[in-house]
Specification:
The complex is a heterodimer of chains A (about 270) and B (about 550). Chain A is built from 13 helices and no strands. Chain A has about 270 residues and is an all-alpha fold. In chain B, strands 11, 12, 13, 16, 17, 18 and 19 form a seven-stranded mixed β-sheet that branches. Chain B has a four-stranded mixed β-sheet with strand order 1-10-9-8, sandwiched between helices. Chain B has a four-stranded antiparallel β-sheet with strand order 4-5-7-6, covered by helices on one side. Classes of the chains: A mainly alpha (about 270), B alpha+beta (about 550). At the A-B interface, α5 and α11 of A face α6, α9, β16, α11 and β17 of B.
Chain lengths: ~270, ~550
């Protein structure tokens, strides 16, 4: 087994373990993520609180498990939607060409040119207030996916253009294959490695985007934890010096981002 | 002989030690947290410009920040007429502006005319606008001035603490000052340099001219973390305001540096949206308009826990609109807030709510739940909201916490009224209740729970209007206090704003600063800048 395949296997196993722990948070977490132990704020790790507690006395380990579930389930879902939009629009732009191509690419460029943070601020402000934290988390990731497809679109469009001009597609068309058959049997299998790569690349981007939004108080609503709002514990250097174990979510985030990168097929694998 | 030598040596050592402790001269370094928008004292409306005005401006009457009593400054005495419209000042003689121009009653007249000029739009002048008509100013002698206002102004003399006298004749215009320092250099975005005013009128008990310092270097620094780091490094010798987290950090490093001036005037509070135009269910509107509901919420909030966990103990449970730090206006008869979930449930029961299976329901069976909004990016308020959320869950109320950027929050508070409850705070720099008129009058824009009413929506708001007008027009402080005490009692009984905590005023001083005596009034750390002194070693350090 090559070293890249071994790395991919380890990354896959590690990610699976983290996913399983997050999915089983209800059973594994010793406490509710919202429960405040007011007699033990900012407590050091102990047998009672494995990773200690935050400033409000909430068990850090439980919050990390539930936060992982939120970030690791919603980020891939958002990445899937974003890649799907990029795949459809990129494919249409490449194969229809002409005004369609120009219009789709221009709208993607326009979206990329918009200051994302202000768009997110405006969109977040228009959401109704009385939504449950989970719905709010889903809305945050939905907004991210609806605004996050243009960069993937450019890659998909470039790949689709190459396919459009390829000999095998010309052969398929000239042999009388229907457009649907061409799409299903020829185009999609050829685009799938690009789409898969875009999917895997986008997941950590969305996780980090949510973390940034939460740092600004715009991401997942309290008391529901996410990696983003857990990382807010690090924004105060003195608090971090006093409670170094608040770094746990950052370590987990780094591990997950690396794992996603290792899982991606390398250029050699694609060839 | 030997004994004489010993005594002589002791005297030399004592003198040397005294010199090491503190000495006249030196430049004090600290930060402004923004760019001063103006050096014209009549146009000041931001904190940075206010700080520069405080350090440079000479006033007729100065409010002593420690005793909270008015003291003569440029005016040796003053008298307010019985009808409360006229104030007459006797000015100190032989005083000079920083550029050597003599100070006379003409300068006061010039300052007041400029202040009251409607074209100038002076925020300081707004406090003096008592009614239709013009302000009449008479200067019978160079040492006497009388100012007559068109209508009585309650607490008139107190307003002169904000009026820095400008020279009518100096070519330097507003840069000629009567305060302890004058602006000697300014680099936009970088610093303001203040130098000692050689013509300052005050002297210490030993007859030495004040101020002791040669100058003050004010760095313009918005980032509080950088300010703290520079203080720790010894580049700065004073921090005017610290948050609880930084205070804790400094306490660990150097227990003598941070200084707690005590409970301040600022308060954090929440309120329910009682606006008739609010787009919310009628059942919710009915809860929010029920006095027992609001009182129950107040009783169910554990303010001691909030103080301990969010402010590291540097805040006190708030009684009401006036903090106990406000010696004169605080109504001591109001009971201290008490955390009592059982009494909260009892009050809710009286209002027809039912608590069963850990859920609170109203008469119609609706689950009691609401959204609490606060401004995003404010970690302290977010923590407070989370704690309130848990406290209210104990009495079966489901609270969703939502943070919004400030413009969106303001839009909901003032235009769309699309929110349930809001958690915010008030920075209070004024001791006088007149500063809160727009909050308590039902017609006021800042009457947050139901702003800009044409007629008072409830009998108690009508009563509150009456009392606030009474206290604003009564001509002696005893009558004013009586009316405002009653107003505070109504606010306590009705809880339109549910006060949570009053934050402590936290400051920090380098051990090199002598004479520091922080207070809860602004500016807390340098209110007595004229008597602050620096140790010699610190002066060298700062110069480095």
């Amino acid at each position: 087994m090559s070293s890249s395949k071994s790395l991919r296997l380890v990354a896959g196993l590690l990610l699976s373990a983290i996913f399983l722990l997050a999915l089983g948070a209800n059973f594994v977490a010793p406490y509710s993520y919202a429960k405040q132990f007011r007699n033990a704020p900012s407590a050091a790790p102990s047998a009672v609180h494995l990773f200690g507690t935050d400033a409000l006395g909430r068990d850090e380990f439980s919050r990390l498990l539930f936060g992982t579930r939120v970030s690791l389930l919603l980020a891939p879902a958002a990445a899937l939607l974003s890649t799907f939009i990029a795949g459809i629009l990129g494919g249409l732009a490449a194969f229809l060409g002409g005004w369609w191509e120009r219009a789709i690419l221009a709208s993607a460029d326009l979206l990329m040119a918009l200051p994302l943070l202000f768009v997110l601020l405006a969109l977040r402000a228009t959401l109704p207030l009385d939504v449950a934290p989970l719905i709010s988390a889903m809305a945050t990731f939905l907004i991210l996916s609806l605004l996050g497809w243009p960069s993937s679109l450019r890659v998909v469009w470039a790949a689709a253009r190459n396919i459009r001009e390829s000999d095998f597609l010309l052969l398929a068309r000239s042999s009388g294959s229907s457009p649907l058959r061409v799409i299903v049997r020829q185009i999609l299998p050829s685009l799938s490695p690009v789409l898969a790569a875009q999917f895997w690349v986008t997941i950590p981007v969305f996780i980090l985007a949510e973390a940034t939004l939460s740092m600004l108080g715009l991401g997942v609503m309290e008391p529901l934890p996410s990696w983003g709002n857990l990382l807010r514990g690090l924004e105060n250097p003195s608090a971090f010096q006093a409670n170094p174990w608040t770094i746990a979510p950052l370590i987990l985030l780094i591990i997950v981002v690396f794992c996603f990168q290792f899982i991606l097929p390398s250029r050699g694998d694609l060839d | 002989m030997l004994r004489r030598l010993r005594v002589f040596a002791s005297l030399i050592l004592f003198a040397a030690a005294a010199c090491a402790r503190a000495q006249t001269g030196g430049v004090l370094h600290f930060c402004l947290h923004g760019e001063p928008k103006t050096f014209n004292p009549n146009l000041v409306d931001d904190e940075a410009a206010e700080n520069v005005r405080y350090l440079t401006g000479g006033v007729l009457i100065r409010l002593n920040r420690q005793t909270q009593v008015l003291e003569p400054a440029l005016a040796s005495s003053w008298q307010v007429s019985k009808d409360g419209r006229k104030i007459t000042f006797q000015l100190r003689k032989s005083l000079y502006f920083s550029d050597g121009t003599p100070f006379t009653s003409e300068d006061v007249a010039y300052t007041m005319k400029s202040l009251m000029d409607p074209q100038l739009h002076s925020p300081t002048g707004d406090s003096f606008r008592s009614g239709e008509g013009t302000v009449e100013i008479q200067t019978p002698t160079i040492g006497t001035i009388s100012i007559t206002f068109p209508a009585p102004i309650a607490g008139l003399e107190r307003l002169f603490d904000q009026v820095a006298i400008m020279s009518a004749h100096s070519p330097k215009k507003e840069m000629a000052v009567l305060g302890p320092f004058y602006v000697s250099d300014y680099k936009a975005g970088s610093y303001v340099e203040l130098a000692r005013n050689p013509n300052y009128w005050k002297h210490d008990a030993q007859g030495h001219a004040l101020p002791y310092l040669d100058g003050i270097h004010l760095d313009i620094q918005r980032n509080r973390d950088i300010e703290l780091l520079r203080f720790e490094r010894g580049d700065l010798q004073l921090i005017n305001r610290l948050d609880a987290e930084s205070y804790k950090r400094l306490s660990k490093e150097n227990s003598s540096a941070p200084r707690n001036a005590g409970t301040g005037l600022d308060s954090d509070f929440l309120w329910f949206n009682e606006s008739p135009n609010a787009p919310m269910a009628e059942s919710k509107k009915s809860w929010f308009r029920t006095t027992e509901f609001r009182r129950a919420i107040s009783a169910a909030i554990n303010r001691d826990d909030i103080s301990r966990m969010v402010f590291d103990g540097h805040a006190k449970p708030a009684y009401g609109p006036i903090s106990p730090a406000n010696h004169f206006w605080f109504n001591a008869a109001i009971p201290a807030p008490k955390y009592d979930p059982q009494s909260a449930l009892k009050l809710l029961g009286q209002a027809g709510f039912r608590f069963a299976n850990d859920e609170l329901r109203d008469k119609s069976g609706n689950r009691v739940e609401f959204t609490l909004v606060t401004n995003s990016g404010n970690a302290i308020r977010e923590k407070m909201a989370s704690m309130i959320q848990q406290d209210l869950s104990e009495i079966g109320i489901k609270v969703s916490v939502v943070t919004l950027d400030f413009p969106s929050l303001l839009e909901r508070m003032t235009r769309t009224f699309d929110y349930d409850a809001c958690l915010l705070g008030l920075v209070n720099t004024d001791l006088d209740p007149n500063g809160q008129m727009t909050v308590w009058l039902s017609s006021g824009e800042n009457h947050q729970w139901n702003p800009s009413q044409k007629t008072p929506a409830t009998p108690w708001e009508a009563e509150l209007d009456k009392l606030m007008h009474q206290q604003a027009t009564a001509l002696n402080d005893t009558e004013r206090k009586k009316a405002f005490d009653q107003a505070q009692q109504i606010i306590y009984e009705q809880q339109p704003l549910i006060y949570i905590v009053n934050r402590d005023v936290l400051t920090a001083f380098s051990p090199a600063v002598h004479g520091a005596s922080p207070t809860v009034l602004t500016p807390p750390a340098f209110w007595n800048a004229e008597v602050l002194q620096l140790a010699a070693s610190s002066q060298q350090g700062a110069e480095r």
